[in-house]
Design brief:
By secondary structure, this protein is α+β, with helices and mostly antiparallel strands. It is built from 17 helices and 6 strands. α2 packs antiparallel against α5 (about 170-210) and α6 crosses α11. Bound molecules: fe (ii) ion (FE2). The site of fe (ii) ion (FE2) has 5 residues, from loops.
Amino acid sequence: MPIMKNSSKKHEAGTTSVSRLRAQISRLKNEQERLKSLLGIARNLSVEMNLDLLLSKIMKEVRFILDADRCSIFLLDENSNELWSRVAYGLQEEIRFPANKGIAGHVCRTGEVINIPDAYKDDRFNPEIDKKTGYQTKSILTVPMQNRFNQIIGVFQVLNKKNGKFTKENEEILTAIGSIATAAIENSLLYAEQKKSFTSFIEALSTTLDSRDYITAGHSRRVTLYAVEIARLMKLDPEQREVIRYAGLLHDIGKIGIPEVILLKDRKLSEDEYEMIKRHANLTRSILNKINFMKNYRDIPSIAASHHERIDGQGYPDNMRGDDIPLGGKILAVADAFDALTSRKPYQDRIELDKVMEIIERDTGKAFEPYVVYNFKFIGLDKLILILEYGHTHEIDKEELKILENHTLADIIEIRTKSIKTENELEIENIFMRYYLRQYRIK
Ligand SMILES: [Fe+2]
């Protein structure tokens, strides 16, 4: 019997150490999994520049790693001293509250980590967001997000641990993720800031150009609006549309190198003068080539410089043919021609729409890429009026725009050829043509 007792004890001891070992292995495995997730977050986050996507990614990962029901990131707006979150709680609208309010406010102010199992028993808890969203907060873990200068840029919050309460280990993990996320968020905010200043610089250049040439006031802006709309109808991706937008704003920037006496001449140009005007396309390229565009925007100079190329090779400055011309350049060519034909001049009202379309049709396949013209004709009449009347849009009746909404340029061309028109067709034609032929001239 004693022998049996001993062996049973030994067996028990053996089982205990095996299960301890197993527990240790499982802990190590969990640790490894967490480490892997952390590395995954670091890798993923460093390449995401869109702030909303970045925040969504972080929150999704954190919920998974910490087994929490919800995760939100509140960023500090130093100007208004508020904490804000755009994608918290699955809401579309932005949530904002004073940066000294609630647990998030406390963490933001003090830099403390707050881990409480029952939010409603803590005086610092602000139940307003729960009231707004209908959510019931129970456990809550909030850590500060500190940048490398030890400044708090916001707070990270996870809610309602699925099993039990948030542990000390959870606090450490969330703090670690907070540091990675802070760097990524700061990068993306900096990128957005740089992009904003880049855009305003381009727009300022474009406005300067448009205001110099009073004959074609607003031309660059309208060409851009047409071109971006054509690109959208052609289903080009948002990045390509952005490049076309910048190229549109800058397509005539070379005109700053053309003497005003020629540029602003309101009579027929001599051959020499015309040759001089033509130089603006090459000048556009030389000027834009001096700008150090980011990688995604490298095609802007070549697209902008090719807006006078023709697919039959008779254009300028390079006599490019067909597919040698960048697609953006072909789009700008149609937009540029349509605006030149339809814009009001100080000495002349708009040319009749039928005449404009006759010219565009005549040059399709010679100057213009047929597929671009085909797509352009699907531009909505409401959008078309808003672009044609750019600068005078406050004088447009919104109800009338709504009536035009589901009809296109192709429709109005067709309606105008009909001898018998339905009541609806007559209404559309009347509204559109009334705006198109409004009698006022630019000063
Ligand atoms: Fe031009």
